[in-house]
Amino acid sequence: MGQQHHLEVDGNDYYLDLLFYHLHLGCYVVIELKVEEFKPEFAGKMSFYLTAVDELLPNRAGQPAIGLILCKDRSKTIVEYTLRDANKPMGVATYTTVPPKYRGELPTKKQFAGLLNLPAEKEKTNE
User: Fold this and answer.
1) What backbone torsions phi and psi does residue 55 show, to the nearest 5 degrees?
2) CA–CA separation, 45 vs 49, rounded Å?
3) What is the largest CA-CA distance in the chain?
4) What is the Cα–Cα distance from 92 to 67, expressed in whole angstroms?
5) pLDDT: which is higher, 104 or 67
6) What is the pLDDT of residues 44-75, one digit of tens each?
7) Contact, 79 vs 42, CB < 8 A?
8) Gap between the Cα atoms of 106 and 100, Å rounded
9) H helices then E strands: how many in the chain?
10) How far is CA 99 from CA 18, 62, 95, 102, 104, in A?
11) Is the pTM of this model over 0.90?
């Protein structure tokens, strides 16, 4: 559905990092990206987002939205305590970045743009 998907609740603007619709499950999937270790307050924000999506976005299948919080790191105990009594379907996972030894094997932005037939970014100058 998109990135930075806009929701308005009582005149306040909120932006979901990533919003998908899972055709097989018939529900929205909200993904929040965090560049830090998991904190319990992330679950409260996700719970709010899931309720808002369920209330504001049309869904003929009627299945409740699912949330995924992707963090740089997590404590399994803190995640367990945080989600134990949560009444919304959500999970927490970690991600890894590309190890330095593999970075040279990935295409540059310019090469990637060429593969997709996109215009290359202009070089930034200090003029």
Assistant:
1) -85, -35
2) 6
3) 57
4) 9
5) 67
6) 999 999 999 999 988 887 889 999 999 988 98
7) no
8) 11
9) 4, 5
10) 24, 41, 12, 6, 10
11) no
pLDDT score of 118: 63
Pairing of strands 66-71, 2-9: unpaired
Domains observed in the chain:
2-97 (3.40.1350)
Rounded alpha-carbon distances, angstroms, from residue 72 to 40, 75, 97? 14, 11, 9
88 close to 68: Cβ distance less than 8 angstroms: no
DSSP state for residue 24 in the 8-state scheme: T
pLDDT per residue as tens digits for the range 108-117? 778 777 777 7
Of the candidates 43, 40, 38, 42, which has an alpha carbon nearest to the alpha carbon of residue 75? Answer: 38
